[in-house]
Write a structure and sequence with these properties.
two-stranded antiparallel ribbon; mainly alpha; disordered N terminus
């Protein structure tokens, strides 16, 4: 099977290669190119690049070389281009394409086809959804072919095989070109050829051929590509024609009609209306959610509110409607399946609704995220806009300040020096530079607003542009001083040597930033690691590049003025850009490290998931050795492992999610890995669930078969025990009774199996057919998904019903899901539903075996009972035989009767049961034999004789024999009772029988029971009367109906009665010799006739005979035996007479007669018994023989039906299982065969007494069946053994073959490394050595290859032996079976298959070995060629070295023979010139000698480890060393002589030049010192011209910068000053005595001034820089603290003013304000310490300023000349800081006072409010009480009595007095209110309203209650 799959894959690859090659050539026509081999022609990369250029229309760079490096570069460029196009390339590397890897080359071309041809396909579905790529093409194909009979598009494979689909596409678009009616569905290739030919005429390239498609498994990729070509030509779906085309189908009309039934009706219409309405709403809402047209001006709050309303109201309602609609769909669809109808094609599928709903939910979530992002962005832009507006105002203010500064400087320029003007200009330029930087920042911010579509960005841009214009107008200005004119211009000239590098640095930084930003982070672990390495390399390079930036900063410090400012701008720009670059590089490294760590962790998890998936998905659930318990443990372990890994797994996902949310640059890669991890994790969870379900079914499956096997084993064990232990040949009575008790227990055990078998029969219909998972399919099969699965092209849900098409792949099955999509899904996802026919058959077989076991138990029990009776009879017989007359006489009468009764009763029972079993066809007649019957008869006679003798002893002897005989005949009553008892037992034993044969047995029993001649006629009459009348015999319950006694029985009884009458009537003749002789003669004649008759009857038997004939024969023999038995009394009479005659007179004649009589009777009786027994046994044998022959034939057919041994392990397993099943059926039938053999042996033994014709025929048939049965058993056993052995050998051979084949493949790849042979000798040697090692490895591999061949040969031998034995066995059975009818086509044997595989394997190895040998020879030839080239070069180099050495020797001789050096100057000059020309010649040879040396060294270096021998290396080194030493000697000799000549010449010229040299030196030293002295003067002037330190930060900073620049200049001159002083001292030490005294003094003074003045300048500069730096820090701190304090002071003053001016009208407000004021006072107390700090900082700065001014004054007075010092005017002391401190102190004091005043004011107001409130509350309380009292008084009626009126008057007077009394309180309230109004005018109106209006009105109401005007 594996080889078949390999062949299919190979054929599929070949089809793809051919199809892809055609497609590539179709596109390469555009560039006039063509390829012939896809694998080879893409290796150089040129054709691949040309293909991509033709497809994309873009140019791709390529290398023109043909070396491997050029090929790799070209393929790499192509792959890089695809990556830029966002084409995912999975594990496709450039080296694999260059190596011509078929799989990866096909994969690359398929990826290109998908991207450039298939991915752009977009088709609109019925529901308006856009379907793309493969799914879109599938939908288009279904739509185009809809309505065409016989065309069903479910995939891009089998659906197109018959060619109808292609023709349907063409017919739908061009019906004029296709006659669809004429197509025959069975003519696949004809249909395909027709379609491809017609398609070619309409512009579709012929990419496929019919033989490519008409295969078992068409290549989907090729068909998909061709269908896409059809789509390119016919992208639109035309409407269907009016009359659909039909195709002649060769199927039944029933199938045709059932295939066209479509469900219609109001139910589906109602569903369609509901589904369409819901789908419209979902699509409309989804479009609304997908709408992103809202901008920054949109009302985001409103949009969020709408989204919330949709989520809370609309979505839940629609979700309920969706569930209802989907449920309705499934219900209708289920009903359709039951009726066999089809859905209407336009019905909206439930999956479409669910898919649309999922898109809606996704769109809703994405819209919410977009709104949140938009809201955040809007807020950010608003804040940025406000910030820009504020900054614009700030920059405007700064420009106003700059403009003011320019005007002030212009106005005071007449009073300024040039230095002052320059300083002011620097300050102005600095401020302008700051403004320009701020404007650049504003432009950048405005650009952000523009990109964010901020509403007011245009206004802000205009304002910033106005600022820029204003700066441009301010930049050009002119300031003129007293002595100089300083003009500021825009253009500043800088030294190009400084400007060019910094420009290059800026460009490098910018380019590097762009390069880093554009570099990809990678998509897999390898590319990510490469990206991280690149990032770290860039980071190191950038850190190393920092030295260039520092150098630019140093160069900037060397410049001055405007050049320095401009250069500083560039440096700042460079530094900022470099800082950004460093940040980018660092961030990229961190991001790459984070991404790598994440991908490594994710990859580790994915590898674990893949490992678990491969382990579980590859599990064979149909394996027969499946360990369920171990799997359950494994499953629990897996669940625990999943639970353990879930936390770190989720941690990785959370980490990735965090990175994605933080917008990590590698978010796409992280998202892809997270998606893969989540899907893989979900798939593993589904796998675990599937495994749990599969485990459950597997446990049930194996439990069922284990229980079944246990039951079967127990039943087999029962049968074996019944056939062995419980079927003894001989046993004692006690043992038999014990066995019978055990059999009862066994019966209970057998019956207990019944419930188990019932459960098995019930569960057999629920057993899942696991075995079918690996069996080849004979047709489509329904399977059910037990877990969810989502793949690339296929998805199924748990519980979904699918159709299984192919399960040949162990891992994945090809199925069709419920929506009609075909694809491959892991087999573990599915469960084949029950029932399992094998389980059902097994249950039925067990039921049959159970019934057989019961039958066998019943039969065995019967036989065991028969054996028991037989043994009891034998015991009785032995007892009787060994009983003496004395013992008989001593035995009680009851015991005598019981003994006779039991023995004869058991005999008759046994005989009856044996006869019954014999008639049923079973063997059981061994228990009742003629010998046993004779023994019983003899016992009866013996008992009769002893009874007669016992009776005779009790009566007088009768002299005459007749009298004695008569006395014997006339039985005593006891003997008569005994005989009646025996007769009763016989009758009783047969009375219940319904068989007619029982009546014969009764007669026979009567005859045998009355064997003596002493039975009287009366007894016979009594027996006859009892039988005829049906009465009881001896008080027995057994009765006979006369109607049940047939004529045969009556005849026998009549015969017996007649015989008795005859015997009685002829009693007197018994002792007559003549009469006796005559009787004996007649009797012997009668016996002779009977013997001849029996012989003739037996001779007529033809064996084998049919059952009816055998039954007739058995009846005849039985009748004959019965008739013979009826002569027994006569025989006994004659025998007794002869014995009595012998007793009286011993006559020889009488003795001979007795012997003849006994012999004849015994022979005939034995022959008759044997014939009856044998006929019965033959019947049993023939019945068993037929059954055995049938069983044997069935087994032989099973063996003949088996194919030869396959080379497929699965097929071998199937054969093994079949034979095992056959072997399990053999043991039960072995019993039948053994019994048949035993019966045959018995027949053969009986044949000695009663021979039959054709006896050998029966024996032959039995032997033949026995041999055939043995052959079946042997064949089954040997085949099982050989299959098991061959399976192991095949498994081992396959493993070895796979391993070695893989090694050969790897070796072939390794051999490719030797394709390119370098022309470097060392490399060639290494390659040669490696090739030799590789060849040794190949040769050393031969034993393993030979092992594979041996193991394969061993398997082949097993197959051949197996097949030969099978063929031999088949030939043996040709005479028994017609094999021509069952002859099957020859199938390739397993030996042939394996032989071919081994031949291919061996050929591959031999080709590999041959290729390695050839490669070694090629490398060796190249090495030899290189060695020859080395020898030529070595000889050439040696010759060159020899030539140079010869020249050196000659030159040495010339130098040694030159004339001595002359002392004459002219001659010396001539010698010098001559030596100079000679030296030039020596120098001329220096380069050739050096080149020769280098050439030799290079030659040695290249060849010392390759070709060069040690002696050669030593020789050439010695030569080159001699050459070098000789040349050095020549140079040394020439230099020595030249030196001597030069020394002599210099000695002559020294004296002449010495004086002029000293003078020149003096002038140089003095001039240099004088220049430095002038610099000192200028520097001292500059130092003295500095003004006291400024009290403003910017000017002070400028002073510090100038001083630092001056200090740097001084430090820069330190070395020249020191050098000049040292030169002067050196000159004075060497030549001081050679110059004049004046010059000596001048040099001494110059040296002193330089040293002292420079030292003063340097110290002064250091002190000033240090002082100014400290002062600047103090000033900055002071300004900062002062500004902060002033800001607080102003705010506090404002707060106090607010509290005072806005004093509360309510006392609670006043108290709260009082509390706030107290807090302010507390804060002021705390701020006093801050004020002290500010004052201290200011005082320190003032003191430092004084110190600096004194320092400046001292320098001017001491370091500068007095006349020069007068040029500097004394600057007045600065008081700005002091004034600010005083003002700050005054302001603080004022605020403090203001706080105190405010506190007092609030205290005063609170007091006034308290007084007023108190008075008001008192007045209000009184008024309330008074008004109540007044109301009460006014309501009382005026009384009629005087006294009462008087009392009322008194009340009113008291009330009036009370009012008058409290009027003073009212006045006090008015006074407090007036005072409050005066203190706080704001509450005056409130007070007046309360006191004047409210209180006053109520008082008037009290005073004048009856006045309504109030």
């Amino acid at each position: 099977m594996e080889r078949l799959r390999t062949r299919d894959f190979y054929e599929r690859d070949e089809v793809q290669k051919k199809t892809f090659t055609k497609w590539v050539n179709q596109n390469l026509r555009k560039v006039n190119k063509k390829i012939s081999d896809l694998y080879k022609d893409f290796r150089d990369g040129h054709n691949l690049i040309s293909l991509l250029e033709a497809l994309s229309g873009e140019k791709i760079p390529r290398e023109r070389g043909r070396l491997r490096v050029h090929r790799l570069q070209n393929v790499g460029n192509a792959l890089k281009f695809l990556q830029q196009k966002k084409v995912m390339l999975v594990n496709i590397r450039s080296d694999e394409i260059v190596n011509g890897n078929p799989k990866l080359t096909l994969g690359l071309v398929w990826t290109i086809i998908l991207h450039f041809q298939i991915s752009d396909i977009v088709v609109e579905s019925h529901v308006g959804e856009q379907v793309q790529a493969k799914d879109g093409l599938m939908f288009w194909a279904k739509c185009v072919t809809e309505g065409y009979p016989g065309v069903t598009i479910n995939n891009f494979g089998q659906s197109w095989r018959d060619g109808l689909a292609f023709n349907a596409v063409l017919h739908r678009n061009r019906p004029d070109l296709i006659d669809f009616k004429s197509l025959n569905p069975r003519n696949h290739r004809g249909n395909l050829e027709n379609a491809f030919s017609v398609a070619e005429t309409v512009g579709v390239p012929r990419l496929l051929d019919p033989e490519d498609v008409d295969v078992a498994s068409p290549d989907e990729k090729s068909i998909l590509m061709y269908v896409s070509s059809l789509y390119d030509v016919f992208p639109k779906v035309p409407p269907p024609p009016v009359q659909q085309a039909t195709v002649t189908t060769h199927t039944s009309s029933e199938q045709h009609s059932s295939a066209t039934v479509t469900a219609t009706g109001p139910v589906w219409e109602a569903y369609q209306q509901e589904a369409r309405t819901l789908m419209d709403w979902i699509q409309k809402t989804t479009m609304k959610m997908d709408d992103r047209s809202f901008d920054q001006h949109a009302d985001i709050k409103k949009l969020q509110s709408e989204l919330t309303q949709l989520r809370s109201q609309d979505v839940p309602a629609k979700l309920a409607e969706l569930r209802k609609t989907v449920a309705k769909y499934h219900k209708l669809d289920t009903e359709l399946h039951k009726t066999g109808q089809m859905r209407p094609p336009s019905v909206v599928h439930a999956r479409e609704l669910e898919s649309a709903w999922e898109k809606l939910i996704t769109a809703e979530q994405q819209r919410e995220t977009a709104l949140q992002v938009l809201l955040s962005k809007s807020r950010h832009l608003s804040e940025l806009g406000q910030k820009i507006s504020d900054q614009i105002q700030t920059v405007n203010s700064d420009l106003d300040s700059v403009d003011t500064q320019i005007k002030e400087v212009k106005g005071n320029s007449g009073r300024m020096t040039a230095a002052d003007i320059k300083n002011n200009i620097d300050v102005i330029e600095g401020n302008l530079m700051t403004c320009k930087n701020n404007i650049r920042t504003l432009f950048s911010n405005v650009q952000q607003l523009k990109e964010g579509q901020y509403e007011g960005w245009k206004d802000l841009l205009k304002r910033v542009e106005d600022l820029e214009k204003r700066v441009s107008s301010i930049e050009t200005y002119k300031i003129t001083g007293q002595a100089n004119v300083v003009t500021q211009t825009v253009t500043i000239q800088i030294d190009p040597k400084l400007l060019a590098p910094i420009s290059e640095h800026i460009n490098w930084v910018q380019n590097k930033s762009a390069e880093i930003s554009k570099t990809s982070y990678g998509t897999d672990l390898t590319s990510i690691q490469n990206a991280l390495s690149k990032a770290r390399f860039d980071e190191k390079a950038i850190k190393a590049y920092k030295s260039n930036v520092d150098r630019c900063r140093h160069n900037c410090n060397m410049l001055k003025g405007a050049e320095r400012e401009h250069y500083s701008e560039l440096v700042v720009k460079l530094e900022e850009a470099f800082k950004q670059l460093v940040d980018i590089a660092n961030k990229r490294c961190r991001d790459a490290e984070v991404l790598q760590q994440f991908v490594e962790d994710a990859t580790e998890e994915l590898m674990w998931l893949d490992g678990k998936e491969d382990q579980e998905a590859a599990r064979d659930w149909s394996a027969k050795n499946l360990d369920v318990e171990e799997l359950e443990k494994h499953h629990m372990s897996l669940l625990r492992e999943i639970e353990t890994r879930e936390k770190p797994f989720n941690a990785i996902l959370e980490r990735g999610q965090k990175y994605v949310l933080n917008h990590h640059p590698g978010s796409e890669t992280m998202r892809a890995y997270m998606t893969t991890m989540q899907s893989q994790w979900s798939w593993l969870i589904q796998l675990s669930a599937s495994m749990e379900t599969q485990l459950k079914y597997a446990a049930e499956y194996h439990q069922f078969f284990n229980d079944a096997r246990n039951c079967e084993q127990r039943m087999i064990q029962f049968k074996e025990e019944l056939n062995s232990r419980y079927s003894p040949v001989e046993a004692t009575v006690e043992e038999i009774n014990h066995l019978l008790l055990e059999m009862e227990d066994m019966k209970d055990k057998i019956l207990q199996l019944k419930s188990v078998l019932e459960d098995l029969a019930k569960s057999s219909h629920e057993v899942v057919p696991l075995k079918q998972r690996r069996q080849p399919l004979t047709g489509r099969m329904t399977v059910y998904a037990i877990c969810n699965y989502t793949g690339i092209d296929m998805s199924v849900s748990s519980g979904e019903e699918c159709v299984l098409l192919d399960n040949s792949d162990r891992l994945k099955w090809r199925v069709i899901n419920t929506v009609g999509r075909e694809g491959t899904v892991p087999g573990i996802v599915f469960m084949i539903p029950p029932p399992y026919e094998g389980a059902i058959r097994l249950a039925k077989r067990l039921e049959v075996q159970f019934q057989e076991s019961l039958t066998l138990w019943s039969t065995t029990n019967t036989k065991l009972n028969q054996l028991l009776k037989r043994q009891q009879i034998m015991q009785d017989v032995e007892t009787v035989k060994h009983m003496t007359l004395h013992e008989y006489e001593n035995t009680s009468m009851q015991r005598r009767v019981e003994m006779t009764y039991v023995m004869n009763g058991n005999t008759q029972h046994l005989k009856h049961e044996t006869s019954t079993v014999s008639k049923n066809g079973d063997a059981g007649q061994d228990f009742i034999t003629s010998e046993l019957l004779r023994e019983v008869e003899g016992c009866n006679l013996l008992i009769d004789e002893m009874a007669a003798r016992t009776n005779a002893q009790d009566k007088p002897k009768v002299e005459e024999t007749i009298t004695s005989s008569t006395v014997t005949v006339e039985q005593s009553s006891v003997q008569s009772m005994h005989r009646k008892t025996v007769l009763f037992q016989v009758t009783q034993s047969h009375a219940s029988s319904e068989s007619p044969d029982s009546k014969f047995n009764i007669a026979d029993s009567i005859a045998h029971s009355n064997g003596s001649l002493d039975l009287c006629d009366q007894e016979v009459q009594d027996i006859t009367a009892h039988i005829q009348q049906g009465e009881e015999l001896d008080n027995s319950n057994v009765t006979f109906n006369p109607e049940d006694v047939d004529n045969d029985l009556e005849n026998e009884l009549d015969s017996l009665s007649n015989l008795l009458d005859e015997m009685c009537s002829e009693g007197a003749k018994r002792l007559d010799p003549y009469t006796l002789n005559e009787d004996i003669t007649k009797f012997l004649k009668k016996l002779q006739e009977l013997q001849e008759k029996l012989s003739q009857e037996l001779q007529t038997v033809k064996l084998p005979a049919d059952q009816e004939t055998m039954m007739g024969m058995q009846d005849n023999v039985t009748t004959f035996h019965s008739n013979l038995a009826s002569l027994q009394p006569r025989y006994d009479r004659l025998r007794l007479n002869l014995e009595e005659a012998l007793k009286k007179e011993d006559q020889p004649e009488t003795k001979d007669q007795l012997v003849v009589l006994l012999d004849t009777w015994e022979k005939l009786y034995s022959m008759s018994s044997a014939a009856a027994e044998r006929i019965s046994e033959i019947s049993v044998v023939q019945a068993s023989l037929g059954r055995a022959r049938e069983v044997v034939e069935n087994c032989e057919h099973s063996l003949l039906d088996q194919d030869g041994m396959s080379a497929d392990l699965d097929k071998i397993q199937v054969q093994y299982d079949t034979l095992q099943e056959l072997q399990r059926t053999l043991p039960p039938f072995q019993v039948v065969i053994d019994q048949l053999v035993k019966s045959t042996i018995k027949v053969r033994r009986l044949s000695q007494r009663a021979p039959l014709p054709d006896d050998h025929t029966l024996q032959k048939d039995v032997n033949e069946v026995k041999l055939r049965w043995d052959d079946v058993c042997v064949q089954t056993h040997e085949r099982l053994m050989r299959l098991d052995l061959a399976s192991d050998k095949l498994q081992e051979m396959t493993e070895y073959l796979t391993r070695e084949s893989n090694w050969i493949s790897e070796a072939a790849v390794t051999l490719l490394k030797f394709e390119i042979i370098d022309h470097d000798i060392l490399t060639v040697q290494q390659q040669y050595h490696a090739a030799r090692l590789f060849n040794a490895e190949v040769e050393n591999r031969w034993p393993k290859v030979e092992d594979v061949l041996k193991k394969g040969s061993s398997f082949i031998d097993e197959v051949n032996v197996y097949d030969a034995a099978q063929d031999s066995y088949a030939k043996q059975l040709e005479e028994f079976h017609d094999l021509t009818a069952t002859k099957r086509p020859r199938i390739e044997s397993g030996a042939e298959v394996v032989q071919k595989e081994l031949e291919i394997f061996k050929t591959r190895y031999e080709e590999l070995s041959m290729n390695v040998t050839e490669k070694i020879e090629v490398i060796d030839s190249v090495g030899k060629q290189l060695n020859a080239e080395y020898d030529r070069e070595y000889r050439t180099i040696c010759q060159v070295v020899s030539d140079k050495s010869y020249w050196v020797t000659i030159t040495q001789q010339k130098l040694k023979t030159l004339e001595p050096i002359s002392s004459d100057l002219q001659t010396l000059t001539f010698q010098k010139d001559k030596l100079k020309s000679f030296t030039e010649d020596i120098s001329y040879h220096e380069v050739p000698i050096s080149e020769t040396t280098l050439r030799v060294e290079k030659f040695i270096k290249l060849n010392q480890d390759k070709h060069m021998k040690p002696e050669q290396q030593k020789e050439i080194k010695e030569k080159i060393k001699g050459l070098q030493d000789g040349y050095r000697s020549v140079v040394s000799l020439a230099n020595d002589r030249m030196q001597k000549i030069e020394d002599a010449h210099q000695h002559l010229m020294a004296e002449k030049k010495e004086l002029s040299l000293v003078d020149n030196n003096f002038q140089e030293v003095y001039a240099a010192g004088h220049l430095l002295l002038k610099w000192l003067s200028d520097t001292e002037h500059a130092m003295g011209s500095h003004q006291p330190q400024s009290e403003q930060v910017q000017p002070l900073n400028e002073q510090l910068n100038k001083m630092k620049a001056l200090k740097d200049d001084i430090n820069a001159h330190e070395k020249p000053i020191k050098s000049s002083v040292d030169n002067i001292q050196k000159f004075m030490n060497t030549s001081g005595q050679k110059i004049t005294r004046e010059n000596h003094g001048a040099l001494h003074d110059l040296q002193k001034q330089l040293y002292s003045r420079f030292d003063v300048l340097q110290n002064q500069a250091d002190e000033r820089v240090q002082h100014l730096t400290s002062a600047l820090d103090y000033l900055r701190n002071f300004d900062h603290d002062l500004a902060k304090f002033e800001h607080w002071l102003g705010k506090t003053s404002h707060d106090i003013d607010g509290l005072v001016s806005d004093a509360g009208r309510d006392i609670s407000v006043l108290k709260r304000q009082q509390t706030q004021l107290q807090g302010i006072a507390s804060d002021m107390n705390v701020r006093k310490s801050h004020l002290a700090i500010v004052q201290d900082t200011g005082q320190r700065f003032i003191e430092d300023s004084k110190v600096y001014k004194q320092m400046l004054y001292d320098f001017r007075n001491t370091a500068l000349p007095s006349q020069f010092n007068r040029m500097f005017s004394e600057a007045p002391d600065a008081t700005g800081i002091q004034d600010r401190l005083v003002q700050l102190d005054n302001d603080f004091t004022q605020v403090e006072q203001k706080c105190g005043n405010a506190s007092k004011r609030l205290d005063f107001l609170i007091t006034k409010h308290q007084y007023y409130n108190k008075s008001l509350e008192s007045a209000m309380r009184w008024l309330d009480a008074t008004e109540k009292a007044m109301s009460k008084l006014m309501q009382e009626p005026i009384a009629a009595e005087t006294q009462t009126v008087q009392e009322q008057t008194e009340k009113f007077k008291a009330f009036n007095d009370d009012v008058i009394k409290h009027s003073k309180d009212i006045e006090d309230l008015k006074d407090t209110g007036r005072e409050l109004s005066d203190a706080q005018p704001e509450v005056k109106s409130d007070v007046q309203k309360t006191v004047g209006m409210n209180i006053g009105f109520r008082i008037m109401a009290l005073v004048y209650p009856n006045e309504t005007n109030f």
